[in-house]
Amino acid sequence: MDVASEIRRILVTELFVEVPPERIGPDDSLRDLLGLDSLGFLELRVQCENRFDVTIDADDFTPENFATVGRLVGLVHRLRGAALVSDA
User: Is the pTM of this model over 0.85?
Assistant: First the structure.
């Protein structure tokens, strides 16, 4: 599964961002360019946890990790990698 594509899909279909998924770049600001507000970030967190089977705790739910699609992709990859290590 392509994490970036799935996050773009979540932004458009679940959070109703009015930018087509193919036009959302990895460095686009989720707040400034795509218009997410505090509730939008909470919903994005829940959607990512459910879709990618990860837990985003308070330490990871930061403006830095949720600044752009690219940063969120990095967080998901890191959390998925940590889950694989802990399951071993």
Answer: yes
85: burial class by Cβ within 10 Å (0-12, 13-18, 19+)?
exposed
Q: How far is CA 30 from CA 24, 85, 88, in A?
A: 10, 30, 34
- Residue showing tokens 């932004």: 11
Helix (H/G/I), strand (E/B), else coil: 12: helix
Q: Backbone dihedral region of 53: left (phi > 0), alpha (psi from -120 to 50 degrees) or beta?
A: left
Domain spanning 3-87: CATH superfamily:
ACP-like (1.10.1200.10)
pLDDT value for 82: 73
